[in-house]
Task: inverse folding
């Protein structure tokens, strides 16, 4: 009897990784199939971004940088889409660019899905512009600080930058009322704070992947006015938009819907950690008793 | 002279960029912008160097008949095909200024049909490995490990709507125990303190290294003596 209990504890402490893999796959697939949706409430750190975009007068100039690639699309794309959507709802001028080579294509996704899909009346070159990608990482941010047209001589399609009315009143980063970045590494939101926000006293905010979010907390709230951390952050921003503008419920629920699978996956991880620790403590107490005996 | 000229350039540019930060008067902001533009132009050549290095490593593997040579073949075919299609803007507007990733270009097809699924798959696999690693590594064997475990538990639950559902019923005096509040406190308290300490350490290291570069004490970037 004792041996079988020890064997069971051993098995609990050494669960085959394939069992964990299968349960994680099910934890993601089943909520997706059942369309499990939880209610998400915006936290103060996300609400701060929403409030800033909301408080800017219509026509304000907002730069949105796409600093990520396809690998982090589930976390970053809903953030970028939500920020762009909110700016367009408020009637701001939107300038899209990328300091990541892959960011240019991701900006195109937002253009197709949000700008052309939801705001077809907004005109390219008048209400929004896609500047594209340039190499240089944080050096690029430094270079465009005073002279954006020197680096971006054309838009992404190759048209002369000076032919766009939206660029008429823009020379450097100080001309923007807000800089937003959806980022997943370096260069990203931190570099926007260090090389643009801090230097020019320009409001900077944005979202990063969940693993990077703890690194940004030292900048909040004085240098970074708000932060979306991972899918949860994106879902909170979407929830804030839906709360203020229920009309956009259908298109503003991508991250909120994805929170169902993520929540269940977190639960499965917690379950395995608890199981492993319970078995560990029982075994350790038995070993102690055996030594005393 | 092969060493003196690069050292002189490094010294002048380094000093100019530092001074530009503290004296926002001409000519320093203009110098700062000009040097940044040069940096961006030089950064583009890193792509050429990277591509050359990739070719060198994998051609070498294939010619030496390394056991993994077929992986190298796939890498080279993928790299060269993407390079030719991207540079030639096949399927899109020709010319230097044409959009290489516009709708209808072959590059866009490669990006959407090959690059995106591959990178997404690699990143998605992390979820499985994180789950398996958490189960094996998060054991409360010591006091420090227990603190880490409890913090991880609160963050895991707090970063989902579950955190709200579990503790929303707590009365006002106990709101600090509300899991989303606890999660926010961990991130903006202990995490912040740790991150700041690391950042200050890194900043001091960067200042020391930069000074050594500007003053010509650190010369490793110039390459070996010949």
Result:
């Amino acid at each position: 009897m004792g041996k079988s209990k020890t064997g069971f504890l051993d098995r609990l402490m050494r669960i085959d990784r394939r069992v964990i893999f299968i349960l994680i796959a099910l934890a993601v697939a089943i909520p997706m199939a059942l369309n499990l949706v939880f209610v998400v409430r915006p936290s103060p750190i996300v609400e701060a971004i929403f409030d800033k975009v909301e408080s800017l007068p219509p026509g304000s100039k907002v730069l949105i940088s796409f600093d990520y690639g396809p690998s982090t699309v589930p976390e970053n794309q809903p953030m970028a889409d939500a920020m762009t959507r909110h700016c367009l709802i408020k009637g701001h001028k939107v300038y899209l660019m990328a300091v990541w080579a892959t960011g240019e294509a991701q900006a195109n996704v937002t253009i197709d899905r949000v700008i052309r899909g939801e705001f077809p009346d907004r005109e390219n070159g008048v209400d929004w512009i896609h500047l594209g990608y340039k190499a240089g990482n944080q050096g690029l941010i430094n270079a465009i600080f005073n002279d954006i047209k020197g680096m971006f001589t054309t838009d992404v399609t190759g048209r002369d930058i000076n032919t766009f009315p939206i660029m008429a009143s823009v020379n450097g980063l100080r001309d923007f009322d807000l800089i937003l970045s959806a980022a997943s590494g370096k260069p990203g939101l931190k570099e926007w704070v260090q090389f643009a926000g801090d230097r020019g006293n320009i409001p900077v905010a944005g979202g990063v992947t969940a693993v990077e979010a703890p690194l940004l907390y030292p900048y909040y709230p004085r240098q970074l006015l708000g932060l979306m951390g991972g899918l949860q952050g994106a879902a909170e921003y979407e929830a804030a938009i839906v709360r203020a503008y229920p009309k956009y419920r259908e298109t503003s629920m991508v991250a909120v819907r994805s929170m169902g699978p993520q929540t269940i996956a977190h639960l499965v991880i917690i379950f395995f950690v608890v199981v492993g620790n319970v078995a560990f403590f029982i075994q350790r107490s038995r070993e102690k008793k055996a030594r005393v005996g | 002279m092969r060493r003196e000229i690069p050292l002189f350039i490094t010294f002048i540019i380094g000093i100019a960029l530092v001074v530009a930060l503290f004296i926002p008067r001409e000519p320093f902001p203009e110098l700062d912008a000009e040097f940044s533009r040069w940096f961006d132009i030089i950064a583009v050549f890193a792509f050429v160097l990277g591509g050359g290095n990739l070719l060198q490593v994998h051609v070498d593997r294939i010619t030496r008949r390394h056991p993994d040579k077929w992986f190298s073949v796939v890498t080279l075919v993928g790299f060269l095909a993407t390079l030719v299609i991207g540079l030639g803007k096949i399927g899109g507007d020709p010319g230097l200024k044409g959009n290489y990733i516009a709708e209808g270009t072959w590059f866009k097809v490669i990006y959407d049909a090959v690059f995106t699924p591959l990178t997404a798959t690699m990143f998605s696999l992390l979820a499985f490995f994180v789950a398996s690693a958490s189960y094996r590594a998060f054991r409360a064997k010591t006091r420090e490990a227990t603190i880490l475990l409890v913090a991880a538990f609160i963050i895991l639950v707090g970063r989902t709507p579950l955190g709200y559902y579990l503790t929303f019923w707590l009365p006002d005096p106990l709101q600090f125990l509300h899991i989303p509040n606890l999660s926010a406190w961990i991130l903006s308290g202990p995490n912040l303190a740790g991150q700041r300490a690391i950042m200050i350490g890194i900043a001091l290291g960067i200042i020391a290294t930069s000074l050594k570069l500007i003053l010509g004490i650190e010369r490793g970037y110039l390459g070996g003596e010949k």
Observations:
- Chain B has eight helices and no strands.
- The mean pLDDT of chain B is 88.
- Residues 61 and 67 of chain B are 9 Å apart (CA to CA).
